[in-house]
TrEMBL record, chain A:
This is phosphoenolpyruvate--glycerone phosphotransferase. Keywords: Glycerol metabolism, Kinase, Transferase. Homodimer. The dihydroxyacetone kinase complex is composed of a homodimer of DhaM, a homodimer of DhaK and the subunit DhaL. It comes from Paramaledivibacter caminithermalis (strain DSM 15212 / CIP 107654 / DViRD3). Residues 5-205 form the DhaL domain. GO terms for molecular function: glycerone kinase activity; phosphoenolpyruvate-glycerone phosphotransferase activity. Pfam families: Dak2 (PF02734). Its EC number is 2.7.1.121. InterPro entries: DhaK_L_YcgS (IPR012737), DhaL_dom (IPR004007), DhaL_dom_sf (IPR036117), Dihydroxyacetone_Kinase (IPR050861). GO terms for biological process: glycerol catabolic process. It catalyses: dihydroxyacetone + phosphoenolpyruvate = dihydroxyacetone phosphate + pyruvate. GO terms for cellular component: cytosol. Pathway: Polyol metabolism; glycerol degradation.
TrEMBL record, chain B:
Its EC number is 2.7.1.121. Pathway: Polyol metabolism; glycerol degradation. NCBIfam families: dhaK1. This is phosphoenolpyruvate--glycerone phosphotransferase. Keywords: Glycerol metabolism, Kinase, Transferase. It comes from Paramaledivibacter caminithermalis (strain DSM 15212 / CIP 107654 / DViRD3) (Clostridium caminithermale). Homodimer. The dihydroxyacetone kinase complex is composed of a homodimer of DhaM, a homodimer of DhaK and the subunit DhaL. InterPro entries: DhaK_1, DhaK_dom, Dihydroxyacetone_Kinase. It is an enzyme of class 2 (transferase). Pfam families: Dak1 (PF02733). GO terms for biological process: glycerol catabolic process. GO terms for cellular component: cytosol. It catalyses: dihydroxyacetone + phosphoenolpyruvate = dihydroxyacetone phosphate + pyruvate.
Length: 209, 332
């Protein structure tokens, strides 16, 4: 169960983690993309943090929808529409709800991933954020089925996302700007998968606090 | 890295202000948005063309707003696609009732953001269609990549589809023309130096003093490979060979040539390249109908150039010759 206050904390913490990793993400992107991922994500989540004050007393759906629209209108690049679409799809699952139960969480995660697949026309194994998100989703779903608490389940999901990021080092990019490099993209971890891992890690850390 | 800026975060805003102040007879800025539209627009009953993308490619795309070319240009942050809300505002502002064609360069971010904007506009009852420019032959066009990038050849789409719209053609016709240009234009570039995004503060890649990057994109992203610097004749031949391998050109075919500077290359060197391109085309008996040399699709301060070759037919020739009057491109 994630209460509205906890959701607000999670979003605030994501903004802080993205800010701390701004240079790291930008450096990863400079190696195989155009070197703006950290800059853009930081700009987006900084704007989200500012916007959250205006929806503090609203339902979880509204809070997440506001997050989505803010990301869409501030991040730019590919990350804006992708993360924006993911948050928008997740928001629709909890429309009007003041609390998010475990079933909702699984559904939100799934809808978010489906949104990214739809918008990005990508699939697993193409060196994208999906390589962190899909294993994390599967681990979360299975852990909850096996009776883990939501905090434990997110810890396992976080580990799976981390492994997913490591996996992106071994494969060639076939989507996004990194695909132009061909085999030269091998050896580098994907910046989008990395920011996805950081987001899942922040959810896990906040839930385990 | 030295740059003549005030604050890295304000470069796009201050640049747009500067453009409007330089060319008030051509463009105005949509209040509160990073969008330039024609000063005298919207044109009632005319199909409107909107393009855009990340900043750092000036004069693309704001410099091509004007009669016979674009109706609106949307500027994102440096090398970053503009967001859907910005593109949507541009579409609303330029729609003269005959619909809007979005000219999108094939980058994942640009395509997604412009598509989202198109969805918003359609939901608002505006007729919108789009074309995706992918002229860069450096990138293999296979199921394994996002597809080819859109680079300097985009200028030909602005010019020719812009003329079609100005002549009063409907949206499906303007789109057909744009797609015909896309199908017949190929580009390939190389660079001598990387470039530095102001907010990043350091170059996107590094090159040794005697190295060049071949087949790179226009965002400082690395190219297909590196090699030692060669003579202008050899470099030009390498790039033209890639283009020739990809487009069916035979004796007596007519082409338009664009030698595009990436921002940090002197015109002297661009003209030297043009001289080589002319020789290579002449050797094959290909007729040069029109040549354009200059900085049209830049990559900040990057030194380097691209060659674009557009195969022409009578319809494209007529539209290429049609009047255009914009800050960065004039055809009288």
């Amino acid at each position: 169960m994630i209460t509205r206050d906890l959701l607000l904390d999670i979003l605030k913490n994501i903004a802080a983690v993205i800010k701390d990793n701004r240079q790291f993400l930008t450096d990863l992107d400079a190696a195989i993309g155009d070197g703006d991922h950290g800059i853009n994500m930081n700009k987006g989540f900084k704007a989200v943090e500012e916007k959250l004050d205006t929806v503090r007393d609203k339902d979880c759906g509204t809070i997440l929808k506001t997050t989505a629209m803010t990301l869409i209108s501030t991040v730019g690049g590919a990350s804006g529409p992708l993360y924006g679409t993911a948050f928008l799809k997740a928001a629709m699952v909890v429309n009007g709800k003041m609390e998010i139960d475990n079933e909702d969480i699984v559904k939100m995660f799934d809808e978010g991933i489906q949104g990214i697949i739809m918008r990005g026309k990508a699939k697993r194994g193409e060196k994208t954020m999906l390589d962190a998100l899909i294993p994390a989703y599967e681990e979360l779903m299975n852990s909850l089925k096996d009776g883990s608490t939501i905090a434990e389940a997110f810890n396992k999901a976080c580990k799976a996302a981390y492994d997913g990021v490591e996996y992106t080092k071994t494969i060639r990019a076939t989507k996004g700007r990194a695909s132009y490099l061909g085999d030269r993209s091998i050896g580098h971890q994907d910046p989008g998968a990395t920011s996805s891992y950081l987001i899942i890690k922040t959810v896990a850390d906040t839930l385990n606090r | 890295m030295k740059k003549i800026i005030n604050n890295p975060e304000n470069v796009v805003n201050e640049m747009l202000e500067g453009i409007v102040k330089a060319h008030p007879e051509y463009v105005k800025r949509l209040e509160g948005f990073n969008v330039l539209v024609r000063a005298n627009g919207p044109s009632k009953g005319k199909v409107a063309l909107v393009s855009g993308g990340g900043s750092g490619h000036e004069p693309s795309h704001g410099g091509f707003v004007g009669e016979g070319m674009l109706d609106g240009a949307v500027a994102g942050e440096v090398f970053t696609s503009p967001t859907p809300d910005q593109v949507f505002e541009a579409v609303k502002a330029v729609d003269g009732g005959a619909g809007v064609l979005l000219v999108i360069k094939n980058y994942t971010g640009d395509v997604m953001n412009f598509e989202m904007a198109g969805e918003l506009a359609k939901a608002d009852g505006i007729e919108v269609d789009s074309v995706i420019v992918n002229d860069d032959v450096a990138v293999e066009n296979s199921t394994w990549t996002t597809g080819r990038r859109g680079i300097a050849g985009t200028i030909f789409i602005h010019k020719i589809a812009g003329a079609a719209a100005e002549k009063g053609m409907g949206l499906p016709e303007v789109k057909r023309i744009a797609e015909k240009v896309i199908a017949n234009v190929r580009s390939m570039g190389m660079s001598l130096t990387p470039c530095t995004v102001p907010a990043a503060g350091k170059p996107g890649f590094e090159l040794a003093e005697d190295e060049v990057e071949v087949g790179l994109g226009i965002h400082g992203e690395p190219g297909t490979h590196r090699e030692k610097i060669k003579s202008a004749a050899e470099i030009t031949k390498d790039l033209m060979d890639k283009i020739f391998a990809d487009i069916d050109l035979t004796q007596d075919d007519e082409v338009a040539v664009l030698i595009n500077g990436l921002g940090g290359t002197p015109l002297m060197e661009l003209y030297i390249v043009n001289n080589e391109v002319d020789k290579l085309l002449e050797d094959k008996g290909i007729v040069i109908y029109k040549t354009i040399v200059g900085n049209y699709m830049t990559s900040l301060e990057m030194a380097g150039f691209s060659i674009s070759i557009l195969k022409l037919d009578d319809e494209l020739k007529e539209l290429l010759n049609y009047k255009a009057d914009t800050p960065a491109f004039k055809q009288l």
